[in-house]
Structure formats: C-alpha cells, structure tokens
Amino acid sequence: PGITETEIHASGGQPDRVARMQDLLPMKRAGTADEVASAVLYLLSDAASYITGAILNVSGGR
To answer: What is this structure's pTM?
Structure first.
C-alpha cells in the first residue's frame, strides 16, 4: 500500500513522516489501516470470486 497512518513511522524513528509527505501525495492525505483492510476484505469476499491474478493498488494514487 501507499503511505498509511500507522505507528510504524514513529517506531522507525520518523514520527512526522506522514505529515511531511501528505502534500506530495495525489490525494493530499495518507491512507488508513481501515482502508487497506477494506481492500483485503473485498478480495477475500464472494464479491471478488471471479478476480484472479489482479493487483489492487491501494495507494491513494501514488
């Protein structure tokens, strides 16, 4: 996924990384863990039963 608001940035020594990068992102914001999880749940659901070999780019346009 693209830049996602999680604690990984702080634990990696860059707690302000999301704020610094927001203006560089096409949607002008970071994604959320819930948005990434929703995409995963969709691919696991019956609604996606005919999808094979596809890449779902959850990146906010990055």
So the answer is: 0.82
